[in-house]
């Protein structure tokens, strides 16, 4: 089992805890991690792009001139793609880009992403994150104490003071144990997790 230090909000080490190898010590499956990221990005695509083909552009119902004898190239419609105001060749149409990964693949990808952060020493455990009110300055000070800049902060419950204190820091994103995903884990340099959140993740994914 991997041992990691637990820090308080002042950045001082208060204890060490063991991480479950079934969640934080698995062999990294790069293919599944890649699939999970591609799936999330694809599922976020709107797919609403649209352009008109020659059959949808108005006008062009008759030949602009007769087939032979004019000296022009033969033309069947003024709405062909080569004409100004004509339709678009292979025009994009609204479509759904999303695809599915099965549950085992999703879980394996998440475990791989978490394990890679632990292996790189980019996984910081905090005993708790508690604020009396919504204070961005206080949150920034905690990150400074932990020597962390670009971070995904994972908390066990949706604490409004923590979430709103972090909201105005451009390099920080908060997530609960239910909403963490592979894309965010990889996007941010460091994953900062509360001790309660670690226990909850181990309960769900072990």
Description:
This protein has 206 residues and is α/β, with parallel strands linked by helices. The protein folds into two domains: 2-45 and 100-205, Ribosomal protein L4/L1 (Ribosomal Protein L4, Chain: A), CATH 3.40.1370.10; 47-96, no CATH class. It is built from seven helices and six strands, in the order ββαααβαβαβαβα. Strands 2-1-3-6-4-5 form a six-stranded mixed β-sheet, with helices on both faces. Strand 1 and strand 2 form a beta hairpin. The two termini are 13 Å apart. The relative contact order is 0.18.
In short:
With 206 residues, the protein is an alpha/beta fold.
Structure characteristics:
single chain, 206 residues, alpha/beta, 7 helices
Q: Please tally the β strands and state the result.
A: 6
CATH class of the largest domain: Alpha Beta
CATH topology of the largest domain: Ribosomal Protein L4, Chain: A
CATH architecture of the largest domain: 3-Layer(aba) Sandwich
Average pLDDT: 91
Summarize the topology.
Layout: E1 2-7, E2 13-19, H1 21-24, H2 30-44, H3 103-119, E3 123-126, H4 136-145, E4 151-155, H5 160-166, E5 172-176, H6 182-187, E6 190-194, H7 195-205
Parallel strand pairs: 1-3, 3-6, 4-5, 4-6
Antiparallel strand pairs: 1-2
């Amino acid at each position: 089992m991997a041992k990691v230090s637990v820090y308080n909000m002042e950045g001082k080490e208060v204890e060490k805890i063991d991480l479950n190898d079934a969640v934080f010590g698995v062999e990294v499956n790069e293919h599944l991690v890649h699939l999970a990221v591609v799936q999330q990005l694809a599922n976020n695509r709107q797919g609403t792009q649209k352009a008109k083909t020659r059959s949808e552009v108005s006008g062009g119902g008759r030949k602009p001139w007769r087939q032979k004898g004019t000296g022009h190239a033969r033309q069947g419609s003024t709405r062909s793609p080569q004409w100004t105001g004509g339709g678009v060749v292979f025009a994009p149409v609204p479509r759904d880009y999303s695809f599915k990964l099965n549950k085992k693949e999703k879980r394996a990808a998440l475990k791989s992403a978490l394990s890679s952060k632990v292996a790189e020493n980019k996984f910081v455990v905090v005993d708790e994150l508690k604020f009396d009110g919504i204070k961005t300055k206080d949150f920034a000070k905690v990150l400074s104490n932990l020597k962390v800049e670009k971070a995904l902060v994972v908390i066990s419950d949706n604490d409004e003071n923590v979430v709103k204190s972090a909201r105005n820091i451009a390099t920080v994103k908060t997530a609960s144990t239910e909403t963490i995903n592979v894309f965010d884990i990889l996007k941010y340099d460091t994953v900062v997790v509360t001790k309660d959140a670690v226990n909850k993740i181990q309960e769900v994914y072990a």
